[in-house]
Amino acid sequence: MDISITDSVLGAVLALIVWSLIVWAWMYALRIPAMQKAGINPDDARHPGSLDALPAGVRQVADNYNHLMEQPTIFYALAFFTVHAQNDSGLAVTLAWAYVVLRVIHSLIQNTINRVMLRFLVFSISTLVLIAWAAIEVMAVLG
After folding, report:
1. pLDDT recorded at residue 3
2. Taking the CB of residue 58, how many other CB atoms lie within 10 A of it?
3. pTM of the prediction?
4. Is residue 116 in a domain?
5. Which of 92, 95, 96, 133 could form an S-S bond across to 12 if both were Cys, CB 3.0 to 4.6 Å?
């Protein structure tokens, strides 16, 4: 199967997977030294909230990683549905890439300046992209 990275929603899927892994590495690059500096034993971090003592800049990257495991599940399901339904059209590809770009922007905002209203704006636009894409798929199924 010949997949062009930019001409398929699968390219956008791969891009978001890679971005999620980059954020995972970013999270641990900050978290491990912060835990060491705070004297937190890794065994003491087995329960939610046990890392609340870490600096906000460290926690916000972990929060963002968690966010990348939440709503993007809809994106992944929609992308695979689109490919399976053979609706991998130009508009679907454009919407898939728009979603990925918006999620990267959301991550960069949350992991750096962390302005909640700006993050919310980007998150809302990305959600509207998913809604539009899902609506297109529903219309294609209903004929």
Report:
1. 62
2. 21
3. 0.94
4. yes
5. 96
